[in-house]
Structures are given as structure tokens and as C-alpha cells.
């Protein structure tokens, strides 16, 4: 288990190097998981290997308060999460433009970072997520409050008990329920600076999809894809389709990702 | 020479006990023990196990690829014996060092 100290907090990170890549500086993707009950394993066990096999350097981490990362009492505004990502990218020595892929709240963290550093981001993929905007934060706040009473997913056994305990601790021992909704959000005009390609995947039955129109107003370049037979947990419910969309997208936006492209890109 | 399954099984059991920490001290770890229900492993434990397999066997055992081929329900039903078989098969495919 690899722990890294950045931005005053210790974060659990994982990395898969590109398979059979001979690039001195392979394209890099950072995968950001969702809020409360989620962790980097959702990526590691679904997308990380296929992405590494496509020639990408794959980086993952547990958000503060989640998984095996520290759970400080305070520091859960959106800017804190973006600061963590910024610190990690420095730690990892990522100098080229990075691809950011976020699930649910993780997509929001990706957008927050990209809005700050549009010149450092190659593209954003948001899975059943939305950029930082009041409508989305209102929904997340309601969800966090509800999660305190009922953490959702029914399960049994020791693994579920540990996950439940971790969610309860996040909600009861930290200020996240107060701090996250009070996050400073970017003004709509700030979105004009974010010109990189954006892919939004939604579950057909997810209510987050109601925010797609507003997202496309803020980010006119966003391409939206709706996956049938899935709700908010589209990454888990439709893993293979999400994987397919992600790989195709990265090949299109990162010409260096392997599929036997004709080269001559680096000159 | 084919990989020695008994040794691999002992290696994997030691890794599982390390991953499970205090949870795993008195737990029987059998070939038909399931990761989730019998051993109580959560997903991050599986990630941790992957790291240990990588350290122990290097690139000859690609556990990340193994799990990437599973959906959520087959992951939950994964047994210790499945992993022992996978590691044994993987090592058998590696050309012997000369």
C-alpha cells in the first residue's frame, strides 16, 4: 500500500504503468472515485488494467476521508479536493497534459481541477456526474444527509460492515456534511476557459442525467452518452460498456494511445 | 518444471493473512473460501492483494488483468483456489530462467 503526503494530508495512491509502452513520457490518466463509500478499488478492479494495456500510465487515489486515506476532521470543500489532486500530480511528476476521469463526485473534482489549470488537462470524462454548479451541489448535499441515516446499498458480511463503518465515520467525525455544500463554486463565465474535450456518460435511469442540459450549456463541447439499463452506479452496472466508451474516447483524444496509429505525432 | 502448487498456495495464504491483518488471524483459509463472504475481504483488500502478488511474482502474474475480466458478481464469488490456479497457470507460461 502506497501512502503519499500532499496538501497536509496522507493519501492512499495506486499506479499501473503502461503495458509494453516505450514512450519516454506516456499519456497519463488519473481516475477519481465518488463520494462516501467509494474508493480507488472501483477503478482498479474495472478500468485500470485495460487503460494501462492501451499504453496509458494509470494513477488512482483515495479521496481524503475515503478508503485508506486520512480522514481529517476538516477540509472537505471542493477546493480542498482540487488542492489534493494538484498536490498529487506534482508528486507524480506529471508534466504533460493529463486525462481526468471521474465517477460521480470524482468527475466534479476533475472539473474543478481542469477549471483551475485548463492548460494542464487533455480531457475530462465524467461518469454520471456534473461540473461544479449549484444544482449538483444541492443534490449531493441532500444525498450526504440521507446517507447519514441510511447508507444505501444493502449487503452483508464483514466487508460490508467495514464499508458502513467508514461511511458513518466520514459523516459523523468530519465536517463534510457542512463544508461540501458551502464550497466556493466557479462562476458560469469561468467555464469558457475550459476548452478541452469533455465526455459525459450517464445511466438512463439516473436522476443526475437531468443535469445534462445545464452541463452542455456550461461546456458546449461536452459529448453526452446515455447507457441503457443503468442508474447512478453505471460504472458498476455497465462496466464493459463504460470501458468501451472510455477506451474509444481516449484513443480519439490521445493520439498516442496504442492501436497502431501511424505515428509522426510527436514531431 | 511446472510451478509448485503447494508452495504457491502457502504464499497466497500468507499474503491473504497479511492483507486481512487482525481480521484474518484465526480465519481458516481453504481453497474453497470465497474472498468476500468467507474471508470478509473488501475491494481495497483485493487491491492490496494485487500489490503483494506484483511484488512477489512481478509481471508474470497479471492479477489486475485477471480481475478486469470479472464482473461484480463473479468477483464476489471468487475463491482462494481460483487464485491459486490462476497464479500456477501464469507461472507455468513463463519460460524457465536459464
Automatic annotation (TrEMBL), chain A:
The keyword Hydrolase applies. One of its GO terms (molecular function) is aminopeptidase activity. Residues 27-136 form the AB hydrolase-1 domain. Gene3D superfamilies: alpha/beta hydrolase. InterPro entries: AB_hydrolase_1 (IPR000073), AB_hydrolase_fold (IPR029058), AB_hydrolase_sf (IPR050266), Peptidase_S33 (IPR002410). The keyword Glycoprotein does not apply. It comes from the Bacteria. GO terms for biological process: proteolysis. Belongs to the peptidase S33 family. This is Alpha/beta hydrolase. It comes from Paractinoplanes ferrugineus.
TrEMBL record, chain B:
SUPFAM superfamilies: ACP-like. This is Carrier domain-containing protein. It comes from the Bacteria. Residues 6-91 form the Carrier domain. It comes from Paractinoplanes ferrugineus. Pfam families: PP-binding. PROSITE patterns: CARRIER.
Amino acid at each position: 500500500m502506497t501512502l503519499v503526503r500532499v496538501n497536509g494530508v496522507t493519501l492512499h495512491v495506486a499506479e499501473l504503468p503502461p503495458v509494453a509502452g516505450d514512450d519516454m513520457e506516456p499519456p497519463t490518466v488519473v481516475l477519481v472515485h465518488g463520494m462516501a463509500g467509494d474508493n480507488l478499488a472501483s477503478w482498479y478492479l474495472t478500468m485500470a488494467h485495460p487503460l494501462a494495456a492501451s499504453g496509458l500510465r494509470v494513477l488512482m487515489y483515495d479521496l481524503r476521508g475515503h478508503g485508506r486515506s486520512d480522514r481529517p476532521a476538516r477540509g472537505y470543500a471542493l477546493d480542498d479536493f482540487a488542492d489534493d489532486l494538484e498536490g498529487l500530480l506534482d508528486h507524480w511528476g506529471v508534466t504533460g497534459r493529463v486525462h481526468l476521469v471521474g465517477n460521480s463526485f470524482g468527475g466534479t473534482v476533475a472539473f474543478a481541477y481542469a477549471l483551475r489549470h485548463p492548460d494542464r488537462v487533455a480531457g475530462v470524462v465524467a461518469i454520471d456526474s456534473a461540473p461544479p454548479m449549484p444544482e449538483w451541489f444541492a443534490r449531493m448535499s441532500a444525498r450526504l444527509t440521507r446517507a447519514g441515516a441510511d447508507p444505501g446499498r444493502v449487503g452483508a458480511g464483514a466487508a460490508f460492515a467495514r464499508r458502513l463503518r467508514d461511511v458513518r465515520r466520514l459523516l459523523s467525525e468530519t465536517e463534510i456534511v457542512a463544508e461540501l455544500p458551502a464550497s466556493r463554486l466557479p462562476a458560469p463565465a469561468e467555464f469558457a476557459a475550459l476548452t478541452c474535450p469533455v465526455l459525459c456518460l450517464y445511466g438512463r435511469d439516473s436522476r443526475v442525467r437531468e443535469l445534462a442540459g445545464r452541463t452542455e450549456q456550461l461546456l458546449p463541447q461536452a459529448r453526452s452518452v446515455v447507457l441503457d439499463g443503468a442508474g447512478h452506479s453505471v460504472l458498476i452496472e455497465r462496466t464493459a460498456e463504460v470501458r468501451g466508451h472510455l477506451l474509444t474516447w481516449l484513443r480519439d483524444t490521445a493520439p498516442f494511445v496504442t492501436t497502431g496509429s501511424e505515428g509522426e505525432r510527436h514531431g | 518444471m511446472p510451478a509448485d502448487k503447494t508452495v504457491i498456495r502457502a504464499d497466497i495464504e500468507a499474503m491473504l493473512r497479511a492483507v486481512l491483518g487482525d481480521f484474518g488471524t484465526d480465519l481458516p483459509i481453504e481453497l474453497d473460501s470465497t474472498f468476500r463472504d468467507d474471508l470478509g475481504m473488501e475491494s481495497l483488500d483485493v487491491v492490496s492483494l494485487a500489490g503483494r502478488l506484483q511484488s512477489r511474482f512481478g509481471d508474470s502474474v497479471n492479477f489486475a488483468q485477471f480481475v478486469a475480466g470479472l464482473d461484480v458478481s463473479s468477483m464476489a464469488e471468487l475463491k482462494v483456489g481460483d487464485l491459486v490456479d490462476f497464479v500456477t497457470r501464469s507461472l507455468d507460461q513463463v519460460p524457465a530462467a536459464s
